[in-house]
Amino acid sequence: MPPGIRGPLAYVGTLRGALVTVGIFASAVGLATAAVLPELRSLGLGIFASGAAALTFLAMATLMRPYHRVARRTQRYELASLVSVLALTGIVALFNYVIVQSDVVADLTASEQYTLAPQTLDTLTERLDAPVEATAFIVDDSNAVTPLEALIAERMVDYLREFERRSGGRFSYQVIDPERFPDIAYSKEVTQWPSVVFENANAGTRQKVVATSNPEQEFLTALLVVLGLSQKSIYVLDGYSSWDLTDQNDPDAPQTLGFALRGLEGDSYNVGVLNLIEDPRIPDDASLIIAAAPDHELGIEDGTALNAYLEGGGRLLALLQPDLPGSWRALIARWGIDALEGYVIDPDSHVAGSEWVPLVGNEGYASTEVTSEASTTFFPSLAPLWVVRAPEDMPTLVDLKPIALTSENSFASDRIERVRRLSTDLGGPFMVGVIARVRGPVDRPVPASAPVTTVGVFGDADFVSNRYFYAFSNSDLFLNTVNHIAGDDALVSIRPKPTVFREMAMTPRELEIVRYIGWFLLPLLVALFGSAVWWVRR
Amino acid sequence: MARSAISLLIGLAVIGAYVLAQVLNEDPLPVPTETFIYSINERDITSVEITHNGDTRRFEWDERSGEWVFDDVERSPVAQDRWGGIPLLLSGPRVQRVLSVDQADLWRYGLDEPLTSIRLGLSDGLRLTVHVGIPSPDGENDYVVREGSPQIVLVDRSWHEVLARLVTAPPFASRP
After folding, report:
1. Fewest C-beta atoms under 10 Å: which of A6, A178, A296, A507?
2. Are B96 and A144 inside 8 Å of each other by CB?
3. pLDDT at res. A334
4. So what's the pLDDT on residue B37?
5. What is the per-residue DSSP string for A434-487?
6. Residues in contact with A344: Cβ distance below 8 Å, sequence separation at least 6, in sequence order
7. How far is it, in rounded angstroms, from Cα A538 to Cα A494?
8. Considering only CB atoms, which chain A residues are within 8 Å of B115?
9. Chain mean pLDDT for chain A
10. Sign, CA torsion B32/B33/B38/B42
11. CA angle, corner B7, sides to B1 and B13, nearest 5?
12. Which CATH architecture has domain B42-168?
């Protein structure tokens, strides 16, 4: 026998050597079996566990021996360190597995993307006055569905579980494989999956939700429908603007309202398009009219219809742009709001390098009802807004709430590219947006029993274009404003939570600070710590 | 140091045991998908009998003429442009999904009273029968069971549609 293998063989012959050999062999064979032969996974994992247990036992025994073979202190120290690192790595890996398998959920995203919105919780806890049952139709075979379908289905079930947990027993769900139980699928008229059918057990009403990337909002809408709670209608005026109202796909599209309209639908509103030029009648169910970026004049008939609607207690949200047509300027002036000429230039608070894009942070907001959830918003090419006269000189005014204000040093420039202030320029602050509640036009005496008209105005429409809608808190500001004007502060207005692209909004000064921290401060800190360690170990 | 290493090892053993118990308690793996309900050589098929909605058509391989014919008095040949791919279709329909179900649940799939039954006679004298039930709710597949098999399978609807059409619109050859 060659002398080179005599030593190892002798070691294997000892109890310790045999245990090490068997432990390593069992671990390797067990892992290989579990990986290669899925049908024998349990057996493979059992073998692996036995081998791992043997090795663990040996490692512990070695460490606990007072005078073991590794006598030198440094070697003992190294062995213990190695064992600690390996054990810790194993614990982290196994703990990760346990967490992934667990039903316990913690939403750690900054925007609370996976947490039920307060409006959903309100519906589940306060408004669910009849038992609602949901049946999720999901194919239970990983070979029969695509990874995307599986992911969507898992997300839908997660939300159903959360709905059930939060409903206090008034909402329940079951998961059915539609291919395994076609009779149930047929009875509920399900032809696509993953999908969920919501049913009001008392009223027998039913609403179906097909695979959705935004389950919370879709499920909430379905709940409301089966509970018989009506949805409000919002109409967007068409024919006064060159903006596109339909494109809900292109995230870079300027002058497109598709995302904003989808956001309104996400807040459980029925959204319709209204062309008063073709038919100057406003539907009776209109809870709010939105005029987006009007650049065509109002006509006589349609203007009359719109004024009559407002005088009858209607609600309008106007998203204006600079160079507003005179008839629109006159329309909002009747309700106390003045759209001034020019573009707002804000030297103190703007998107870096673009003084014509005022940036509004927490200090710039004025109306807490609308802006409580909003963080930063910005308004490319903003028209300056103010009031037509002092509030005390508007006897019909009920209240007037500025939504946000530009900074003290902002001014109205006649051209977007002129960012230097002239002495003739009108100085700020200006209102970025405002909501006025008025009993009749402000230039008339107070009528005896006039209904309250609500008019909201923003000096910008670009902030809700597809390109900017999901940037910062633009969408929240817009949707909150709509909720407030429509009288839905406490009602349904949950936000769709698309995958958030996190931008950082900075003024030029902040940008410089961040830049210098990255360039100098962090490397300096590393150098300091390194020097300190060297000094201590010297 | 050794104490902390031992503590970590104990922690690893505890959490490892927990994970192992979890893994062993997991649901069994799904039934692996079969590729075909059955697989035969198309040349081994000697007769085809299809019953659809109560109507039956029988076709036979005529050794003398070397072509498929209607099994009727006239023994008229089938139209080759319609029949060309039929033996291949019958040699083994591809399975979309396998369902292991209780035989008492055949009614769920319309297989207690099949919409269509296909009986194949083979050259070795064996017979092979397949029943087709209702379409799946999404309309993509049909529930199919091979007689004697404990499994129901989903097969693309086009397979059944082509075969059922042999009964609803028989492939008569146009006479010269």
Report:
1. A6
2. yes
3. 94
4. 86
5. EEEEESS-TTSPPPTTPPPEEEEEES-SGGGSHHHHTSTTHHHHHHHHHHHHTT
6. A356, A358, A379, A382, A383, A384, A406, A410, A411, A412, A413, A428, A430, A459
7. 61
8. none
9. 85
10. negative
11. 135
12. Sandwich (2.60)
What lies within 8 Å, CB to CB, of B95 at 6+ separation is B33, B34, B35, B36, B37, B153, B154, B155
Query: Dihedral (C-alpha) A507, A513, A519, A520: value to the nearest 10 degrees?
Result: 180
For residue B1, list chain A residues with Cβ-Cβ distance below 8 A.
76-77, 80-81, 84
- What average pLDDT score do residues A262-270 get? 79
- Is A84 close to B4, i.e. CB distance below 8 A? yes
Tell me the three state secondary structure of residue A293. Answer: coil
Which pLDDT score is estimated for B28? 54
- Nearest partner of B118 among B94, B101, B93, judged by Cα: B93
DSSP states along A121-161: HHIIIII--S-EEEEEE----TTTS-HHHHHHHHHHHHHHH
What are the residue boundaries of the structural domains of chain B, listed by start? 42-168
Q: What is the dihedral of CA A517, A521, A523, A528, to 10 degrees?
A: -160
Q: Which amino acid is at A264?
A: L
pLDDT digits (tens, 9 = 90+) for A79-114: 777 778 888 888 888 888 888 777 677 777 766 667
Whole-number pLDDT of residue A69: 54
Strand positions, DSSP E, A329-387 = 337-339, 343-345, 350-351, 354-360, 377-378, 385-387
Per-residue pLDDT, averaged over B167-173, amounts to 89
A375: left (phi over 0), alpha (psi -120 to 50) or beta: alpha
What is the predicted pLDDT for the residue at A491? 46
Report the alpha-carbon angle A284-A290-A291, nearest 5. 125
pLDDT at position A493 is: 45
Residue among B9, B19, B99 whose CB faces A94 most closely: B19
* pLDDT level of residue A492 (50, 70, 90 thresholds): very low
Residue A499 has pLDDT above 60, yes or no: no
Q: What is the pLDDT of residues B61-108, one digit of tens each?
A: 998 888 899 988 888 889 988 888 899 999 988 898 988 888 888 999
Residues of chain B with Cβ-Cβ distance to A190 below 8 Å are 137
- C-alpha to C-alpha distance for A399 and A379, rounded to whole angstroms: 25
CA contacts within 13 A on the Cβ side of A460: 31
- B118 within 8 A of B50, measured Cβ to Cβ: yes
Chain B closest CA to A537's CA: distance in Å? 20
Cβ contact B16–A42 (<8 Å): no
Per DSSP (E only), the strands in A193-297 are 195-200, 206-210, 233-237, 270-274, 286-292
